[in-house]
Design goal:
Layout lengths: L14 E6 L7 H14 L4 E5 L10 E2 L6 H4 L1 H10 L3 E3 L3 H11 L5 E5 L11 E5 L2 H5 L20 E5 L3 H14 L5 E9 L7 E5 L4 H10 L4 E6 L8 H14 L3 E5 H7 L1 H9 L2 E10 L2 H20 L2
Parallel strand pairs: 1-5, 1-6, 2-4, 2-5, 6-7, 7-8, 9-10, 9-11, 11-12
Antiparallel strand pairs: 3-4, 8-12
Helix pairs in contact: 1-3, 3-9
Length: 311
Amino acid sequence: MRQTWLKPKRLNWPVISVGNLSTGGTGKTPFVIALARLLSHSGFHVDVLSRGYGRLGASVERVDTAGTSERFGDEPLLIAREAGVPVYVGARRWEAGRLAELVSSQTAVHLLDDGFQHRQLLRDIDVVLINSEDLKDRSLPAGNLREGVRSLHRATVLAIPVGDDAAVTQLRKWGRKWDFDQPVWRFRREMDTPTVSGPVVAFCGIARPEQFLSGLELNGVRIAARHVFPDHHRFRAADLELLRRLAKDSGAVGLVTTAKDRVRLGNLGVELERLAPLHTAGLRVVIEDEAAVTAWLVNRLTDRKDRLTAR
């Protein structure tokens, strides 16, 4: 049967997509938070549009920071709490964007969370996070890539971690063949680790748990035991008993998890606190050369505004 593709829709306000090629673990959520803060500090009004992966609700709505991950999704809730900007969720991001434009009296910049593969919404800037691991990986189901490296020709900007010069070199080499000549932004991932007086049980349910666990150890946290749940795991009471038992059997003085997992724990986190001290290790992204990145964004966004005004 012949497949019919819907024509992509355009929102009234500019759209900046932040995405990647892999199924997760590149730091996309903290990058969205960092970019939202950068734009806000530069004088732009910003909102975030997200699918809300894993949420039980189906309505298009603004995220309530006092809400739950079941209703809004863990990533949108975390972004709303940490970036301090409106976040709208909906399976169709265009509908989420239209809601944002209808309820706001001020023109804003839409940040499209995890939007590189979302082709139904036109965007003005496509920022794609990429690293050496992605360049060595294969497409699903054999690997973790949602689409191949050649698709990077659609990107406007490539965002590559500081220190990953091999990725820059390889992309420039392939670029001569596959038309990659985009500007490259460099960024650092920094972990805010808690101060704990003894060994801990480290647990998480994220795409690349080894990054979290090794980050704790690099920052001097002693891990007595560890447990990895599936990505986007929805916690249940039985999980608390498992973690309590791990803490008791390993002699741990507390528990440490990621900010995303703490969001997903919700009220269960309060119950877990009664069993053992619960600490959160936050992950933040620092974009290098913010002045140059800001100037580039202002130029692109101003150009879009001028074109809209000239219509």
